[in-house]
Design a protein that fits this description.
By secondary structure, this protein is mainly alpha-helical. It has 3 helices and no strands. The radius of gyration is 33 Å and the shape is rod-shaped.
Length: 90
């Protein structure tokens, strides 16, 4: 048995046109998405070390509290932040 796929008069041209336009729209959206992500940057998902509204002394206190720096380093950096010279160093 032979199946007949159209009348041979080119009636299915609109299907091919619709499929081609669909592919152009699809790839256009993909390119637009990639360009948008590159232009505006990907969202930063990494946790920040400190917030931008945190003062330098608050950052220093937090670093001392979690053990990133010892007491001598804390005192030295605090003096530098406050504009004081320490006597007896170097």
């Amino acid at each position: 048995m032979m199946y007949y796929w159209g009348n041979g008069g080119g009636v299915e041209w609109w299907g091919w046109l619709l499929m081609a336009l669909g592919m152009v729209v699809f790839w256009g959206l993909v390119v637009w998405l990639i360009v948008s992500l590159v232009r505006w940057g990907l969202p930063d998902r990494s946790p920040s070390r400190f917030s931008s509204d945190e003062s330098p002394e608050a950052v220093l206190k937090r670093r001392f509290a979690v053990g990133e720096i010892d007491e001598d380093e804390y005192s030295r950096r605090l003096d530098v932040l406050r504009g004081r010279e320490r006597v007896g160093t170097h």
